[in-house]
Specification:
The chain is of the alpha/beta class. It is 44% helix and 14% strand. It has 2 domains: 2-171 and 337-358, Rossmann fold (3-Layer(aba) Sandwich); 188-333, Glycogen Phosphorylase B (Rossmann fold), CATH 3.40.50. The protein has 16 helices and 13 strands. α4 runs parallel beside α5 (130-141). The longest helix is centred in the first third of the chain and has 19 residues, at 69-87. 48% of the residues are buried.
Length: 360
Amino acid sequence: MKLMTIIGARPQFIKAAAVSRVLARDFSNVQEILVHTGQHYDINMSDVFFEELGIPRPDHYLGIGGGSHGQNTGRMLEKLDGLMAQEHPDWVLVYGDTDSTLAGSLAAAKLHIPVAHVEAGLRSFNRRMPEEINRVLTDHIADLLFVPTQAAQHNLRREGVKDKNIRVVGDVMYDAALHYRDRARQPMWFAALQLDAFILCTIHRAENTDDQDRIRSILAGLASAPLPVVLPLHPRTRRQIDHFGLVLPDTVHVVDPVGYLEMVWLESRCEFVLTDSGGVQKEAYFHGKSCITLRDETEWVELVEAGVNVLVGADTQRIAAAMVAVKPVSLQLGLYGHGDSARRLISCLVGVSADDEFKQ
């Protein structure tokens, strides 16, 4: 079987690492063609992940990034259409909710190539988020939907997706967390900060970075942090802070984007996490840390229901209050499977590859 994997952004590199590792080790009958769209084109946010996660270099690099959502998706769709016609994959595998995810799904569907979607069924129910549009459309294009939780399965059932197309396999991000936790490494710059304890923060979503009032309110909330804040600053966020003429609080230590193994180190050693990232919400849980989410909703509702994640939006007072009320986290909750999600989804994909009855 020939499998074409489409990736383009940081969380997808991590997920693909877990799946590609199991493919290479245990499924010699599957040939994986790895395609990197170039959606994340900064070397600190792309190339470094391939190096430290041990992902094979992409078979194809499309070099697409830096444009608007529409521009990126359109250019990816055009190039992927030609590439799929050239490679003739049996399946196209996409991850998550990025422009690369949607473009890969659309290109495959128009060429009548079956699509498998990893991390299907997530819903924030906020259609203003580009990610929400991407994930909904991809789910209704895909032939096989690998969901991480029962809640995600419920979302798909409610939208009319047939049970025979859905597989609950757990979360491959948890596979990755277990595999890489002993390989985590301290960032070279960390010792110079001389911090005994710290809070970890990431901010990158357009709903925050492109709204002057929201980003100002978030920074004001960080000013009341009870501990120093380490903020690996996304290029988008840095540009917008400068554009709006905002000043970072003295409590915040700004650093460049970090690699995954450095992020694991920071997540496992911080006191708690503030983020607007979907992936980092889960990673905080995987490393036993409470999370304060700088969004008004989340697709990871089970974390909120379990009391290990609190939604504060961009409200200064709610951010400040949440930072003094963090709770301990118990991994005994077992929310995302048992660390064997990659094997489960590959076994499923191989098992149905010769059976058209599952198709919608």
